[in-house]
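Fold it.
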Amino acid sequence: MGFTNSVTSALGLKSGVRAEEDVSSGGVRKTSNMAYRADARSGHFLDVFWPQDPSSSVPVLFYFNSGSFHKSNRSRAAGLCNIIAQRNFVVINCEFPDLGRGVGADAQLGDVMHLMKWVATNSGRYKTDLERVYVAGSSYGALMAFWMALLCNSKRLPAALGMGEAPFRVKGLGLFNGMTDTESGDRIMRSICKSISKAESSNKDLGEAMRPWSNHDLRDLPPVYQITGDSDSALPDVHRMNLLLEENAVVHDTLEFDNGIRTLNGFMEDYAAGSECARSISKMFGFFADNQ
């Protein structure tokens, strides 16, 4: 869905980058290119989607796009974020500097902490209810969403990171075609694992806490909802994650589409206006509501 009535402002930005504030035809406002770190470095930006005239505080969902870790692209997820915002949510569409060039997965975790603090500081502007925080991610962004839930709800990962406690807790975690198996041989996941190992060489507990299967503090995770399909390349990760969640007594459910439904990694972003996406979102939020 396109946005109309565009205006610009210099909200929190440096280096001549300007934020664009729009009003959509669906009653959703969008502020784009907001710097959530003072350095305004490439990758330290976010877009905010929120109801045009919220009558009271509304829940917030942090979204990590399918390009997280490599070639992050907020614009690809704009349609999905807009659709979720129409359900009376503030949606934070965020990105991080890509792995490599001196940026490691541990540094990206630090960025997540800065991101959360930015949202907490600006909660009044967007009328966000920090008692109702959700997080979701597609493909590799699902791993980043998983980490954020641990940063907010458990003690081990934030303690190992050494940046203090998160400003809120997460009420629900959505994993869309989630690539979360840090023990797989996928090319991108191998680079993520290499970065985790590098962090582990100087901070063993941090490396172990970042790997789902060596983090023994998972019982504090919020309810988890996974979305996949029987022809999805992420299906093995989804099934293994389900076993891990069961072992740790985490409330969870999975929506698995039949063969023939578009279930490529990132389909929620690419086909945000499709019936599969609408059905997935409705079921996910219904599951969260039933398990609070």
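Residues 3-16 have pLDDT under 50 and may be disordered.
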